[in-house]
Write a structure and sequence with these properties.
The chain has 617 residues and is α+β, with helices and mostly antiparallel strands. It contains 20 helices and seven strands. The chain starts with 15 loop residues before the first helix and ends in an 11-residue tail after the last strand. The relative contact order is 0.04.
């Protein structure tokens, strides 16, 4: 049997009265699924009256409603009235109404599928297959999902089955078989029912029986699928007859015939009557077969395949009753009809091949155009890529040239800084040596013993320190110890020297600019303690994330501005200034009076301070 026609549901917003009509349309579709002809006709008449009252309304909402109603009329006349020619007319009108209408892609594809199915029922199988292929192409071009493409593929397979092109039908049925897991139950029913027909036409009765049994099982017990269920039972009755299983055939045919007489559907009543005639002949009940043939005229339907089956059954009946003349006449009519069907199928297959060739040619032309566009796009992208590459190369060359100049500038700058640092640091050496020697010479002139060992150690460390930017706090304090030892000999017991290192300060880890503390100590002794003596304290402690180093004396204090012009203090200032230029965190220092008396010099050093002013870049 043929696959069911398709409906769609509209969800777009409409004025209130059109919305009510759309609800009526939805109920019309519901009555169709239940094959309630009277209810369907009443709902359809109500919608038609509304459309007649608004003939001049060309709004999209009304045009969509009119298109849906025309499509529904096509299904009604085909499925319930058995008039696919009328269904075809209504469907054509529906497709015309959809022209230039937005948002009806799915509705258009469904109407195209119905049109193809109506052509199949009219025996125009080539146009049916072509219609389904066009609908499938439209579905692909509009991006419609597989849920709608599956019914279209079912229609294509069925069209090839009925035209006897079993090579193409087998190809499409196999393709559909792989989609069974994602099919809806209704599509699965159509798949098994129509695949059963394919096997039946090829006399593969066992395979056909299995398909019809699966189809019936899918819809069994579903009140909304009674039509499908009894269609499958009718097909099973025919198959069991072919398999010579009269009891099973009788049971199936009786149930199906009772249902279709109740709903008054002549095509299937005629089809089942033919099966009943064959059953009576199988059982040897000639009179029963004659009675069925007498109450079911052979020209009751216009479906050629059904007529062929009836003529075969009547020919057997005439032979059983010895009516040879009538049997001969029926035989001739059978062969004429069968030959015309076969001729038509041959012509249809040739027409289908021609249509397929035209489709393939059209697709090839489209593919060639797509290929040309892709080629042009690729060429454009290639030119763009080359242009981008050239720009990138130019930018890289520019950056390399700029970087080279910057590197040269940095190298020159670093050399200048190195010379400046060397010059600044070297100033301290003669100044320091001069001061140390002056003390020792003064000691000798005054008749006191000279400790050349301490002086030698002091001078050696002074020279070493002058070549260094940084030193550890512990090394710096050792150097200061030698210096204080020499100075204290001149001052006798008047100098009280002590160091206070807080427990949180690691003298070996704390770094500072070389000779900074020594210069602070030298200034404290020379300007604060040398005349009358006193206390000299070096203190190191933690302050936030820094180390604070203080040199404190209790001398006379500062009576004038800080002597930054002093050689030692100038070296400290210039050294720290150059180091700070290369650090985000800064070393700070200063000198000031101290209460109750004296002077305090201090140096605050951040923990993450970097003394490497020449970094790789």
């Amino acid at each position: 049997m043929s696959c069911a026609s398709l409906f769609s549901c509209g969800n777009s917003k409409r004025p209130t009265d059109v919305s009510r009509m759309q609800q009526t349309m939805d109920s019309l579709k519901m009555w169709y699924t239940q094959m309630e002809g009277d209810s369907m006709e009443a709902k359809s008449r109500r919608i038609k009256d509304y459309l007649d009252q608004h003939q001049n309304d060309k709004s999209e909402a009304l045009r969509r409603l009119r298109a849906e109603w025309l499509k529904a009329q096509g299904v009604y006349y085909t499925a319930l009235k058995g008039q696919p020619d009328s269904g075809l007319i209504y469907t054509e009108l529906a497709l015309e109404e959809m022209q230039n209408l937005e948002g009806v892609d799915e509705l258009r594809v469904l109407a195209m599928a119905n049109k193809a199915d109506f052509y199949r029922q009219l025996g125009k199988l080539d146009r049916s297959a072509d219609g389904y292929l066009q609908a499938l192409q439209a579905a692909d071009s509009t991006g419609i999902g597989d849920s709608l493409k599956i019914p279209l593929m079912l229609g294509i397979s069925t069209a090839y089955t009925f035209m006897g092109d079993y090579i193409n039908s087998h190809r499409w049925w196999e393709r559909l078989g792989s989609l069974l897991p994602i099919m809806k139950r209704n599509d699965q029913f159509i798949y098994y029912n129509n695949l059963g027909n394919d096997h039946y036409f090829q006399a593969n009765y066992q395979e056909a029986r299995d398909c019809f049994l699966k189809a019936a099982e899918l819809v069994k017990g579903d009140e909304a699928k009674l039509w499908d269920y009894y269609t499958a039972l009718g097909n099973l009755g025919e198959i069991y007859t072919c398999l010579h299983k009269a009891d099973s055939a009788q049971r199936m045919v009786q149930q199906a015939d009772s249902f279709f007489r109740k709903v008054n559907f002549p095509p299937l009543i005629y089809y089942l009557a033919t099966t009943r005639i064959n059953l009576k002949l199988m059982e040897g009940d000639i009179q029963g077969a004659q009675a069925i043939a007498a109450t079911s005229p052979k020209d009751e339907v216009s479906i050629p395949a059904a007529k062929v089956l009836r003529l075969k059954a009547l020919e057997q009946l005439m032979k059983k009753t010895g009516r040879w003349q009538e049997a001969m006449s029926i035989h001739e009519e059978f062969h004429q009809l069968n030959d015309s069907i076969q001729t038509a199928q041959t012509a249809i297959r040739m027409s289908t091949q021609l249509l397929q060739y035209q489709h393939d040619k059209q697709l090839m032309v489209q593919q060639q155009e797509i290929d040309r566009q892709q080629m042009r796009a690729q060429q454009a992208w290639a030119l763009f890529a080359v242009a981008v590459l050239i720009v990138v190369v130019l930018i890289v060359l520019y950056q390399l040239r700029r970087r080279k100049h910057r590197l040269q500038e940095m190298t020159t700058q670093q050399q200048i800084i190195a010379l400046r640092m060397e010059n600044t640091r070297n100033r301290i050496t003669p100044h320091f040596i001069y001061n140390a020697l002056s003390h020792e010479m003064l000691e000798q002139m005054e008749g006191r013993a000279v400790d050349l060992n301490a002086l030698t150690q002091l001078l050696r460390r002074g020279v070493d320190q002058a070549d260094m930017l940084e030193t550890s706090l512990s090394e710096e304090l050792h150097f200061v110890d030698y210096y204080v030892e020499i100075e204290s000999r001149q001052m006798g017991d008047h100098l009280d020297y002590k160091k206070v290192i807080h427990k949180d300060v690691n003298s070996d880890k704390v770094c500072l600019p070389a000779m900074t503390i020594q210069i602070f100590v030298e200034n404290a002794i020379k300007h604060g303690l040398q005349r009358q003596g006193g206390e000299l304290t070096i203190r190191a402690s933690r302050q936030d994330e820094c180390t604070l180093i203080e040199v404190i004396d209790n001398g006379q204090g500062l009576k004038q501005p800080i002597p930054m012009a002093h050689t030692g203090m100038r070296v400290v200032r210039q050294t720290i200034q150059m180091l700070n230029e290369h650090n985000r965190q800064q070393i700070t220092f200063g000198i000031g009076n101290w209460q109750p008396s004296g002077c305090r010099a201090w140096l605050l050093i951040p923990d993450e301070y970097d003394y490497h002013i020449f970094k790789n870049n």
